Structures are given as C-alpha cells and as structure tokens.
Amino acid sequence: MVSGLLRTGRGSDLASLTTTATRQGDHYVIHGHKIWTSYSDVADWCLLLARTDKDAPRHRGISAFIISMHQPGIEQRPLRMINGVTTEFGQVLFDGATVPASQMIGAPGEGWALAMTVVGHEREPSTLGYSARYGKLVRQLAGRVHGDAPEELAWAAVQTEMLRLHVRRRLSEQLDGVSHGPEGSLDKLLMTWVEQSVGHAALAVGGADDPDLLSAYLYSRAQSVMGGTAQIQKNIIAGRILGLTE
Ligand SMILES: Cc1cc2nc3c(=O)[nH]c(=O)nc-3n(C[C@H](O)[C@H](O)[C@H](O)COP(=O)(O)OP(=O)(O)OC[C@H]3O[C@@H](n4cnc5c(N)ncnc54)[C@H](O)[C@@H]3O)c2cc1C
Predict the structure, then answer these.
(1) What whole-number distance in Å separates Cα of residue 190 and Cα of residue 49?
(2) Coil, strand or helix: which one is 2?
(3) For 49-82, how does the pLDDT look when each residue is reduced to its tens digit (9 = 90+)?
(4) Distance between terminal CA atoms of the chain?
C-alpha cells in the first residue's frame, strides 16, 4: 500500500517544507519528519516531497520520490485521534533513510508541480467516493428516526443530494475532457460542509451515547483540515478563481 502524499515538515505552507533529500552517489539521504500521515501504519511505500535544492526559489527546490517505508532510518509513530482510533495516522520521522535516485518521480525540482496535480485530484469529490458514503449514512440515520426528523437530518439530506448532483456534473465534465485545476478547492469546501452537516445530523439522531455516530461526528471535524484547510481553499478560490489580490 502507498501512503498519502507526505508534505514533509510543513502544513499549509507547503512551499517552505523543511525535510531534505541530499544526493550521495546514486542515492538520496532523507532527514526530516511529517505528522498526520494517512495510513503510514500500514504503508509499504510512500510518496515523499523533500527539498533537494536549498538555493533554488522555494517552489523549485522540491522533488518527489517514492520511498520504501521498510528500512532503517524511518520511524512511524502512531497518533491517537479524538475518536480513540490509534491506527490510520502516524508521524513519520526520517533520520538518514535512503532512496535510490532512480525512484525520483520526474526531474529534480518538479515536486511542486506533481504535488499540485495530486492535491487537485484529492480535493475533487467525484474521484473519492465521499458522496456515496454521506448518502448511505443519511439513509441509515433516517431509518433510525421515529416521528419528526431533527432539522439537522433534513439539512444533511438536502446537502447530500446537492453534492451528489454536483459530483455527477463533475464526472460528466471529466468525461468531456475538462480539467478543473483550482476549482477542486470549491469541491473540497463543498465536501467539507456536507460531511460536517452529516456529522451534526449523526449527533442529533444518536446523541453522544452511540459510539459509531459520535465517531462519525468527530471524524467530520477533520475534513476541514485534511487535504488543505478550508481557509487555504478560500485563499485559492479568492486568488486563482476570482482573481482577487491583496
Ligand atoms: C485526517 C487528516 C489526514 C491527513 N493526511 C495527510 C497525509 O496523508 N499526508 C500529508 O502530507 N498530510 C496529511 N494531513 C496534514 C494536513 O495536510 C495538514 O494538517 C493541513 O495541510 C494543515 O496544516 P497544519 O496542520 O500544519 O496547520 P497550519 O498550516 O499550521 O494551519 C493552522 C491554521 O492556520 C490557518 N492558516 C494557515 N495558513 C493560512 C493562510 N495563509 N491563510 C489563512 N489561514 C491560514 C489554517 O487554515 C489553520 O486553520 C492530514 C491531516 C488530517 C487532519
């Protein structure tokens, strides 16, 4: 299994990432760390972004590698989430891990472009199957309600249907060869709002006593952070779609 993209050593400000990959013969040697790495506990490989040229402009000094997780110099530390789960995430520390130069993806300095392509896809709901998951949970919640449904559930049902239709439109556009680029940020914001509405509905129907529904609510809070925070998506929409500048 390949873990998520490792934006090592930085969060929102990816261009200033601090993890380094230093060329030594036909290998690169990695030093740095990354917290919140999805599935690092089960990954055999991960996609690593690291700085290969500290003198280049920030965006141009980053390269991408596919690196084995099974080697000395890599430590995976589990993290405990608020819902009690200790798998699924970890902090990954690199202390002299190596990767063959042949496992660089693209050319030196092309890591930024690759990362932007990856997050562009990551932010589109159409490719992630989230919409179906939200719809399934809303139907399950509706099945548990006897009498009047709470307002939160009605709102979640409306939003879920809206996202389903939006995803269908996006898929049609993709079939027509349309590439979305920064519009993925609109999708990510939409997806976040819907997941958090569904999370509120789960809490309204199950209360804090139902562990599965409480977990659905708690997990929904992470959606506005993972894959780039809601504030960063708004910055992208303002700057790259609406053309607003400071
Ligand atoms: C469930 C989950 C899974 C994740 N999986 C992965 C993974 O697989 N791989 C990976 O590399 N990372 C992963 N992450 C990390 C995620 O990408 C980062 O948490 C995220 O990009 C935010 O970075 P940060 O946590 O360092 O927060 P920061 O960047 O420190 O941001 C803190 C706060 O400041 C705000 N902020 C920061 N800069 C600006 C700005 N310029 N304008 C306005 N507001 C700003 C942010 O919106 C946020 O509210 C995951 C995170 C979560 C929660």
Answers:
(1) 27
(2) strand
(3) 999 999 999 999 999 999 999 999 999 999 988 8
(4) 42
What pLDDT score does 117 carry?
85
Any idea of the CA torsion for 229, 230, 234, 236, to the nearest 10 degrees? Answer: 30
Give the gyration radius of the chain's Cα atoms.
20
Instruction: For residue range 164-181, list pLDDT tens digits in order.
Output: 999 999 889 988 988 878
Distance 12 CA to ligand 1 centre (A): 5
How far is the centre of ligand 1, averaged over its atoms, from the C-alpha of 102 (Å)? 30
- Residue where the block lists tokens 């998520």: 4
CA distances, 204 to each of 152, 182, 193, 201, 212 (Å):
7, 34, 16, 5, 13
Beta bridge partners of 91: 77
Which domains, and CATH codes, for the chain?
3-118 (2.40.110.10), 123-241 (1.20.140.10)
Distance of alpha carbon 148 from alpha carbon 67, whole angstroms = 53
* Catalytic site residue from 75, 88, 110, 122: 122
Name the pTM for this structure. Answer: 0.88
Contacts of 158 (CB under 8 A, 6+ apart): none
Say yes or no: CB of residue 4 within 6 Å of ligand 1. Answer: yes
CA distances for 15 relative to 56, 177, 181, 186, angstroms: 11, 29, 18, 22
Half-sphere exposure of 104 (CA within 13 A, CB side): 22
